[in-house]
Amino acid sequence: MQKNKISSAVVRRLPKYFRFLTNLENEGVEKISSKQLSEITGFTASQIRQDLNHFGGFGQQGYGYRVTELKNSIADIIGLNKEYNVVIVGFGRIGRAIYQYKGFDTKKFNVIGVFDLEEGTYDEGKIEIKSIDKLESFLEKNDVDIVVLGVPKNEAQKICDMISGKNVKGIWNFAPTNVEVEGDVAIENIHLSESLYSLIFYMSNPEHY
Amino acid sequence: MQKNKISSAVVRRLPKYFRFLTNLENEGVEKISSKQLSEITGFTASQIRQDLNHFGGFGQQGYGYRVTELKNSIADIIGLNKEYNVVIVGFGRIGRAIYQYKGFDTKKFNVIGVFDLEEGTYDEGKIEIKSIDKLESFLEKNDVDIVVLGVPKNEAQKICDMISGKNVKGIWNFAPTNVEVEGDVAIENIHLSESLYSLIFYMSNPEHY
DNA sequence: TAGATTGTTAATCGATTAACAATC
DNA sequence: TAGATTGTTAATCGATTAACAATC
């Protein structure tokens, strides 16, 4: 019954399509062809059509795609029209940066808890930081969708062990280590130093860039 | 004369090899086979050998690889044994997080300048924040290898236009937009919302995870 | 020498690109 | 209708995996 898995290459392009289409919408563009989208995104027109057709036919032959309609369809596919309860674990530099990140719609991403080794408050008492000791019971009592992991690498796996069986659906991991969690939990890693090291590789080896 | 380009898939695995080998070294492990490394990393033994052999033969038939030696070789390949002068442009949440990020060796990454719209100081006067107006002349007078872009998306391309022709070798871009720069400059993007959106896609569509 | 494991070539698999029939 | 552009199948390309000879 299960359809073929969407390859991760396609999944990584979906947010890019969403971003470019949002820009086009803001510029007031109403229609776009795969050829035009190709020029903007750098992907081939063929690839764009292939990608979209994994999820359905959003275009009109001879015409192209309606920008707003396609943008909204992609938002639905990704799941951007739902709300998510988020907990930030580890309130160091990265946890704080994520807390205040303005890049995504904060109506959809409710940070309902912030945890760190040290209890306390932050931002003139506006943020209550709870002890990590209380994370497990918090996850049991609240409907947490996403855990943002901003703890040191030694702590990351311990937190993930707490998470399994708590109905958490995704982990956004900033710790520089691979974590595992039991059950149906998606994990997305941001490994900053790996990204920097890739950059340095290309700087050191420009013939491969 | 130019050899075949190393594929980006390989380049992205190099920092992972480096990370796992560093861990192994710290644990006191002296030798490792591609099969053992496969179990640790999740890559196939075949792939690991293929990847390494793009850069030379680092192993010994019948024996395996010496951990420290291989780790050092990979560091050399990536370019981790050199020093880099870094400038941070945009000192908001992300710029600050990167400034204080402890994940990479700060001896090798000298932050020699921090720029923002507003001049000032930070961290009890320890950090001087210069006006972005002065960035261009700073780049001319100093040998800057890497520019970290932590500005809003509308500003990002303007900064990149300043950068071309200034001997900058790499841009680490955190702005949620694609930037371009003339000349032989490597660009590495960290698109936080795209990463989050991928996570949400898999949360919403677990059958594709 | 025998066993182990690399380095490397060949086979397979999957993703991208090209082509074109369908159709607006 | 003619022109344009999608949706989709087929061809190509590149990356991964398998196999094995080389050799420590």
Automatic annotation (TrEMBL), chains A, B:
<dbReference type="InterPro" id="IPR003781">
    <property type="entry name" value="CoA-bd"/>
</dbReference>
<dbReference type="InterPro" id="IPR036388">
    <property type="entry name" value="WH-like_DNA-bd_sf"/>
</dbReference>
<dbReference type="Pfam" id="PF06971">
    <property type="entry name" value="Put_DNA-bind_N"/>
</dbReference>
<dbReference type="GO" id="GO:0051775">
    <property type="term" value="P:response to redox state"/>
</dbReference>
<keyword id="KW-0678">Repressor</keyword>
<dbReference type="InterPro" id="IPR036390">
    <property type="entry name" value="WH_DNA-bd_sf"/>
</dbReference>
<dbReference type="InterPro" id="IPR009718">
    <property type="entry name" value="Rex_DNA-bd_C_dom"/>
</dbReference>
<dbReference type="GO" id="GO:0045892">
    <property type="term" value="P:negative regulation of DNA-templated transcription"/>
</dbReference>
<dbReference type="Pfam" id="PF02629">
    <property type="entry name" value="CoA_binding"/>
</dbReference>
<feature type="binding site">
    <location>
        <begin position="90"/>
        <end position="95"/>
    </location>
    <ligand>
        <name>NAD(+)</name>
    </ligand>
</feature>
<dbReference type="InterPro" id="IPR036291">
    <property type="entry name" value="NAD(P)-bd_dom_sf"/>
</dbReference>
<dbReference type="GO" id="GO:0003700">
    <property type="term" value="F:DNA-binding transcription factor activity"/>
</dbReference>
<keyword id="KW-0804">Transcription</keyword>
<keyword id="KW-0520">NAD</keyword>
<dbReference type="InterPro" id="IPR022876">
    <property type="entry name" value="Tscrpt_rep_Rex"/>
</dbReference>
<keyword id="KW-0963">Cytoplasm</keyword>
<comment type="similarity">
    <text>Belongs to the transcriptional regulatory Rex family.</text>
</comment>
<keyword id="KW-0238">DNA-binding</keyword>
<dbReference type="GO" id="GO:0005737">
    <property type="term" value="C:cytoplasm"/>
</dbReference>
<comment type="function">
    <text>Modulates transcription in response to changes in cellular NADH/NAD(+) redox state.</text>
</comment>
<dbReference type="GO" id="GO:0003677">
    <property type="term" value="F:DNA binding"/>
</dbReference>
<feature type="domain" description="CoA-binding">
    <location>
        <begin position="79"/>
        <end position="178"/>
    </location>
</feature>
<comment type="subunit">
    <text>Homodimer.</text>
</comment>
<keyword id="KW-0805">Transcription regulation</keyword>
<feature type="DNA-binding region" description="H-T-H motif">
    <location>
        <begin position="16"/>
        <end position="55"/>
    </location>
</feature>
<protein>
    <recommendedName>
        <fullName>Redox-sensing transcriptional repressor Rex</fullName>
    </recommendedName>
</protein>
